[in-house]
């Protein structure tokens, strides 16, 4: 579970910015709360703002950290820079990312500092009392790195010579160091339509990849079919079959393709491939893959433009998947951006961030930071009236 994310000099966010999932004891329970021994966490956070305000950039660090921690050692080109961008007005300054999260009942902190497309420092901590103690620290020193560890047995010589475009956690996992495995599994449980280097804009190829993922996890596939029936999309059932497709070089390959079964009131039936279904049906099929994966594993779903191609009446049903224990037994979390301000009627002020760009720099704030905003205020009405910020100035 995520407690908080801090970032600075990352894409359009130049200044220190925090996305905080924690809340005090004061807010009235909403059903979207995780109760821990000494704190409460949000299950759901919405990010709202004008086009170009930085909404995607605010949630992108989670997708970036998932890729960097899990895959940068094996997937990254050894000679390429880390794929991220500092703010274009602060190219020479450090980029800082910090994530506080709970794993196996212990609060941890992961810190990463980047500059020039390379690692400046990387560290992992565990809370031992009121303070954090490091499990490892890796800091740039000359042509290599200095390295210290307590209970994280990565060989010092390898850590000092590790290349500057990869995570030590990713390397440790590749070397089969068992202490790295829980952290790899945690960061791998971040499920997102945002890539580490940008958003995954919907393309028809997503139908193939989503269908293949469903086939690999029958319990998620069964839940997806159940939900697709419930969403009033005209579907009686969904099947996934392997088909022959042409590759870009003209060769033949196999791929998984979903087909929707439609049934009339007199029990007559017909079938359509999902390429013939509506864009909303296609989007729901792909979206549920990310959402249900997080719910199945107790992870975090990071969804950009969650309302894309979906009717507003469908969104409460998606949020309710995270609200109730029977559909979210592992306390999965969801953070999403959207352009449907009516969703503000479903959430409380501590569950909503607004984004705004001022003087070419993005800023974000949680609505419970707004002075004078009451818990029983109509958030939708105030937002639409421009009283909270985060709206286009036309």
From TrEMBL:
Residues 45-345 form the ATPase AAA-type core domain. Transmembrane segments: none annotated. InterPro entries: ATPase_AAA_core (IPR003959), P-loop_NTPase (IPR027417). One of its GO terms (molecular function) is ATP hydrolysis activity. Pfam families: AAA_21 (PF13304). SUPFAM superfamilies: P-loop containing nucleoside triphosphate hydrolases. Coiled coil: none annotated. This is ATPase AAA-type core domain-containing protein. It comes from Azotobacter beijerinckii.
